[in-house]
Structures are given as C-alpha cells and as structure tokens.
C-alpha cells in the first residue's frame, strides 16, 4: 500500500516557479512509476510528467517540455516536480500518482495509476 501527500502549491505570478513535492509512505514506492497529473476547473485530468522506478527515464506532456522537470529522491521517499516559466494556463490542481508493480513503464493515462494524493492547488496569476 502506498499513501501520497502533495505539497508546494500556491499562488505565483506568470513567469515564476514552484516546486511541488509528493511524499510517500510504503517501501513499494521505491519501485513505483510516479506520475504528475493536473486538472483545471471544467476540464479533464491530464498527464503532466512521469518518472520510472529508478529515475533514469522521464516523460513529459508536450506543453511542459523544457519548463517542467520531474525527479525523485528515494532516500526521502519523495518525487518532485519543478515548474518554471509558469503560465496562467498552468493553473490547476496538481496530483501525484503511483503505479503498483515493479519495472512498469511510465503511463500517460490516469487509470493506469493505482494510488493518488489529495492534490495541491497551483494558481498562476498577476
């Protein structure tokens, strides 16, 4: 079983940066694929970024490439999402999620993930 808790959201001006954290409990997290998703009001949840079990493979949605960076610190059981050059359209609730099982590929579809955090709000506004 894995429990996920996101933090680091808040209000930031356009062009600013935030770093989101996803802290996990459970030893199986260290072998889990972790993804970040987001959901804006009235819109479907969308894939943001993902990282494989040992951190040597990452994947990003096209609109986040070059601006967002995902990383993991297994000693701290934490996955991070560094977000730079934020735009108003990045405003959403951001969720981290984990896939159960070992050596799975990064998935971009939310129903491929088994565990979810409660989300953290990111608002980009002047």
Offer a few descriptive terms.
mainly beta, four-stranded antiparallel β-sheet, 126 residues
Task: Give an overview in words.
With 126 residues, the chain is mainly beta. 0% of the residues lie in helices and 45% in strands. Strands 2, 4, 5, 6, 9, 10 and 11 form a seven-stranded mixed beta sheet that branches. The chain has a four-stranded antiparallel beta sheet with strand order 1-3-8-7, with no helix packed on it. The protein starts with a strand and ends with a strand. The mean pLDDT is 94.
Secondary-structure map:
Elements: E1 3-7, E2 10-12, E3 18-25, E4 34-39, E5 46-51, E6 58-60, E7 68-73, E8 78-83, E9 92-98, E10 115-116, E11 120-124
Parallel strand pairs: 2-11
Antiparallel strand pairs: 1-3, 3-8, 4-5, 4-9, 5-6, 7-8, 9-10, 9-11
Low-confidence stretches: none
Question: What's the main sheet like?
Answer: 7 strands, mixed
**How much of the sequence is in beta strands?**
over 45%
Helical content, roughly? under 10%
Q: Indicate the overall shape.
A: globular
How many alpha or pi helices? 0
Task: Offer a concise description of the structure.
With 126 residues, the protein is mostly beta strands.
